[in-house]
Amino acid sequence: MKKTILTLTLLFTCMLTYGQDFTVTGTVSDTTDGAPLPGVNIVVEGTVIGTTTDRDGNYEITVPSASSTLVFSYVGYESKLISINNKSTIDVQMALKT
């Protein structure tokens, strides 16, 4: 009985800790001139959760975990994978494909 209660308590605690959504915001720009990049695709790796940057290169995305990884992709540019690591603001610079 004690094991069951302990197991349920731990499970509930984990759900509260890891089941909370986390919001990340930032700006995506070009490495060459720092110009904002509109329409960059941003997806939580391994999910269908995603968004795009606005005309000023700004984005906001709600992710299932603060330890998720974001995938940034844009036509003609190198894709980037960035671990969130509990950061609520992530600015990204993307480089043209060579």
Molecular structure report:
By secondary structure, the protein is an alpha+beta fold. The chain is 17% helix and 35% strand. The protein contains one helix and seven strands; from the N terminus they run H-E-E-E-E-E-E-E. It has a four-stranded antiparallel sheet with strand order 3-2-5-6, with no helix packed on it. It has a three-stranded mixed sheet with strand order 4-1-7, with no helix packed on it. Strand 5 (69-73) and strand 6 (80-83) form a beta hairpin. The chain is globular and about 35 Å long. The protein starts with a helix and ends with a strand. Residues 6-17 have low confidence and may be disordered.
